[in-house]
Amino acid sequence: MTVHPPLLWPAYKSTLLRAPSKAPVPLQLSVSELTGPTFSDRPVEAHESDLTRQGAIGERLIVHGVLRDDTGRPIPHSVIEVWQTNAAGRYANRADQHPAPLDPNFTGVGRCVTDAQGHYRFQTIRPGAYPWRNHDNAWRPAHIHFSLFGRAFTQRLITQMYFPGDPLFDQDPVLNSVRDPAARQRLISAFDLSATEPEWALAYRFDIVLGGQSATPMEP
Amino acid sequence: MTPSQTIGPFFTHALPYPEGPLVVPLSQPHSFWVRGKVFDGVNAPVPDALIESWQVTDEFSGFGRCPTDEEGNWALHTVKAPYLVLSVFARGLLNRVVTRIYFPDQEQLNATDPVLATLDDTARATLLARAADDGYTFDIHLQGEHETTFFAL
Ligand SMILES: [Fe+2]
Fold first, then answer.
1. Is A4 a catalytic residue?
2. What is the predicted ipTM?
3. Is residue B63 within a helix (H) or strand (E), and if so which, with residue range?
4. Integer distance in angstroms from the first to the last C-alpha of chain B?
5. Model's pTM, two decimal places?
6. B101 Cα to chain A: minimum distance (Å)
């Protein structure tokens, strides 16, 4: 049974005309699905993991965790992309018309690479909730968008990380499209006192597990 | 496993990059464009999708990424492979959908392809690009009468 949301989820209105109506065809995997890009031609710079480097306004946070495959093995040297709103709940994106202030010192975009143990770490600020027009008085709970590559095309995943205890969870059809409560819980990060930086930043932990086979042999 | 969530409408400042559509440089011999549009269930263009490609042969492997524009158009500049594998992300897609692009002029490869062999004519036809002036055209229909064949991995 998949942990992923159904593509047709009427509570999230945009799925109505975009979800395919036919069931996906099972695929005999080839080397094209069992491998994936490494981005050696587009190296990630160390500063890209610090979204606060221009002096963003907001509550400073460390967001970190371990990237694993579904056998529990860490996935080292894998690119992670993130994007989020500023502290006021607005994206640095022309299409975002929410009348909340822009922060000229925050793009809300970052990248990093997992280390040899599969660990990643970003420094950012807490994103804000924002309204959207899905239903009457609809608000998205604060979240950070995550884009993961893993080792193979099969493992490619885009998801969202939430913060514990958000009062907007119950009315959010995006989070609630994940039907398995345990799987839904895995999208919610945990406050991590051990990773806080005294006199500097709070910390949240978000571990990520990618399904899907890959051709890469096991590392020793 | 970590569940998927939609890419949402606000990724264009974050994920696309200038060389994203260039799987190979413009100067590469035997390179061409694959251009297409993404449509929804009432044939309206999808202006906020992200297309990603991956292709593997013994000689070359390459990744491409292109967002759709206001008219739903995307384009990737690449070289031949037996097929390209494609992910489509969009607002309203709670998970990506996955398909393949085959080339109509690689008849022998297509005739022996084990995946194409399992499909009926209608499903197979949605995976074949069409020849165009500077390469190929490949439209993606997320839903409806012309729905593209999508795969479960
Ligand atoms: Fe968002």
1. no
2. 0.97
3. strand B61-67
4. 15
5. 0.97
6. 12
